[in-house]
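If your schedule permits, I should be very grateful for your opinion on a structural question. The matter concerns a single protein, recorded as an amino acid sequence and a row of backbone structure tokens. Could you please explain, in whatever detail you think fit, how the structure tokens follow from the sequence? I set the record out below, with my sincere thanks for your time.

——
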Amino acid sequence: MSSYSRVALVTGANKGIGFAITRELCRHFSGDVVLAARDAERGRAAVQQLQTEGLSPRFHQLDIDDPQSIRALRDFLRREYGGLNVLVNNAGIAFKFDDPTPFDIQAEMTLKTNFFATRNVCTELLPIIKPHGRVVNISSLQGSKALENCRQDLQEKFRCETLTEEDLVDLMKKFVEDTKNEVHEREGWPSSAYGMSKLGVTVLSRIQARNLDAKRKADRILLNACCPGWVKTDMAGDYGSRTVEEGAETPVYLALLPPDATGPHGQLVRDKVVQNW
């Protein structure tokens, strides 16, 4: 048996859904919980707030847009814990509905963080996930809506069971490129940067799950995407219909699937139910 403690990590965890997920994991996960946030001051303040509730998360700085920051966190997890048991990829951004920023800039920035940076975190941390580990990528049904609004041939590419991670990266880059050239609608893309970023996360999760089955089947790692719903956070504002606690329910459920669970795996889950998309 390993002498290391078990550890769960939540990214973008100093507020909103990430903070609520961290709180619930502190209550129910048997091991240490690391609250990761880009802003160290806000991250430490969030840790202090949970400490006043009798909980004891650890803090580690993480800017998912910075590969060096991701690697520093990876090295910390290796050194302190010999790896990672639970990864919740929660960090992300969204522009407000009425934001005047040009659409191509919104597309580039949103995909940079929500898709490409999340992928970078997975590239560094999936190799150190321990047997029976759990990975939860926070996605959204907005991604499914974006898929429905893609041209038919694009839909078929995203749904293809043999799509590789490299193929998916190329599709995401093409979307951003087409927005810059102001041809994205003509090329069959939807006009939702957030939706496209989360479509990328959902499809990436399917690919990652297939790769885990191919390379580490015996380790019984379960990896899923999930939609927390439209939650009252800084991101959604008053448009949200759910509390952050309600938004945290499905991510926490997936993070805490028991060791003998065989699924869900490679799915998009909302309200603890696998979604067709």
Observations:
- Strands lie at 7-10, 32-37, 58-61, 84-89, 129-138, 222-227, 268-270, 273-274.
- The chain has a mean pLDDT of 95.
- Residues 20 and 245 are 6 Å apart (CA to CA).
